[in-house]
Amino acid sequence: MPSKEKTCAENFSRLIDVPLENIAIAFLGQAGFCIKTHTGSMMAIDPYLTDCVERIAGFKRMIPSVVTPEFLDADIFLATHSHPDHLDKDALPFFAKRPAAFFIGSADCEASYKSAGIYGNRFKILRVGDEIKIGDFHVRATYADHGNLAPDAIGYLISAGGITIYNVGDSAYVPEKILKSLGNAKVDVMIAPINGAYGNLDASEACILAASIKPKILIASHFWMFVEHGGDPAKFLEESKKLSGTKAVVMAPEEVMIIEPEDSF
Question: In CATH, what number is assigned to the domain containing residue 44?
């Protein structure tokens, strides 16, 4: 089974030693996660670390950030779409200062990357079906339906160390299109929103979708950061009891989970 540790995300890359063929997943809050391989390569997905959503939309952060932007020591930054709780507009300039950092995002992220001084050789825009191999990671963009809120929004299928993670991204329940974009991929870990607002899956829909995808581990995201966004982890865990062969997990901010290959097969 996956093992869990608590650590400050600021020290994630230095303090967490990942065994060969394993990966580590750390939860940053909201829809933010870090993935680290045994070589030390680290990817950040949708890290929301500032108060820019309150500045832009008036939604107050309810969970303190686990790390300040300048100390998120990632090699690759992924954004599922350009909403500021996924592409943190105030953190992005700090990420851009990392000379070796590479950025991957949906089409609506391009303007934000360029405004932060991140240009063509440092970022890659993906649309559904596009893929890229970078370092230890293979990334493929998958279908997501975030409606008119973010028509370019995507999910990600991420493979590293023999383990495949499916990050649904912000999406409504559109199983036929999602499953078609996943193709024959075997998903080991699935990360899904559970807040059921602003066009996202709710707790029940996340579990129903997981029943079709059949991951070994289902991780909840997109809850408790903003009062306006909602999200009920208790309902998610209750709904997950209907699943067979899938372990549902609610991670605390800063929590780290080590995923072993035998958990996945």
Answer: 3.60.15.10
